[in-house]
């Protein structure tokens, strides 16, 4: 073998080694990325998860609303990426505790009793105006001492929360918004930013207040982070002082 042939052979071998090393590095990076996603979402390989959705009573028979269906599709794609499985149930059939399986709960407490129960037991600092009468506070969020009103089609709020508790330690994700389109926006926000959220919060609890901007024009695509309200949402809401009564003498 001549010197030129030997040099060529060594060059080819070096290129092959570089390609294999690069492939192995990418495979290892992809595996670590998958494990981080699985840990954040509480979805190891072949695990089970629960998607809980409310019912839309506008038709002759209660059905899942169109925005909620889009939200479920976003979440189902995330679950599939984790090599896990999911079961979709309505709020009135999900009569079980939490923590054994990762749960994604979508909807408003007025149409999703399980959402209402989670807010009461896990986020006592959150109050939501569910009164149907029109007015400036209709659908408003009260978190701690701050009130967040809804401007329909202009600015609407939604809570995105990752909470832990119960038996098994699997998380519960809440997507609770002021209008039907807002939970869909929150699920899309989670799908787009789960890696950033995992780096910041790990496998801990967080409660984020998001704002859907100009949904009349942009639908659920434009979402802003308003604030991290974890502390205020978990602390019991202050009880208004009772008024003292005086009898006339």
Automatic annotation (TrEMBL):
Species whose genome carries this gene: Streptomyces wadayamensis
Keyword Membrane: yes
Superkingdom, taxonomy of origin: Bacteria
Protein's UniProt name: Secreted protein
Stretches that traverse the bilayer: 6-27
Annotated keywords: Membrane, Transmembrane, Transmembrane helix
């Amino acid at each position: 073998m001549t010197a030129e042939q030997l040099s060529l052979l060594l060059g080819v071998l070096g290129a092959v080694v570089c390609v294999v090393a690069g492939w192995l590095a990418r495979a290892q990076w992809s595996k670590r990325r998958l494990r981080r996603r699985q840990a954040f979402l509480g979805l190891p390989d072949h695990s089970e998860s629960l998607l809980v959705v409310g019912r839309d009573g506008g038709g002759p028979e209660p059905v899942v609303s169109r925005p909620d269906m889009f939200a479920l599709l976003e979440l189902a794609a995330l679950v599939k990426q984790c090599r896990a499985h999911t079961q979709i149930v309505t709020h009135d059939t999900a009569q079980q505790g939490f923590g054994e399986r990762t749960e994604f709960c979508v909807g408003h407490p007025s149409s999703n009793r399980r959402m209402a129960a989670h807010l009461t037991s896990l986020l006592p600092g959150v109050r939501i105006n569910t009164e149907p009468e029109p007015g400036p506070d209709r659908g408003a969020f009260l978190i701690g001492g701050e009130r967040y009103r809804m401007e329909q089609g202009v600015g609407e709020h939604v809570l995105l929360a990752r909470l832990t508790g119960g038996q098994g330690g699997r998380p519960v994700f809440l997507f609770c918004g002021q209008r039907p389109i807002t939970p869909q926006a929150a699920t899309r926000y989670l799908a787009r930013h789960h890696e950033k959220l995992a780096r910041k919060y790990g496998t801990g609890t967080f409660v984020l207040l998001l704002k859907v901007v100009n949904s009349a024009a942009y639908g659920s695509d434009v979402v802003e982070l308003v604030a991290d309200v974890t502390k205020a949402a978990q602390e019991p809401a202050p009880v208004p002082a009772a008024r003292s009564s005086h009898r006339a003498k």
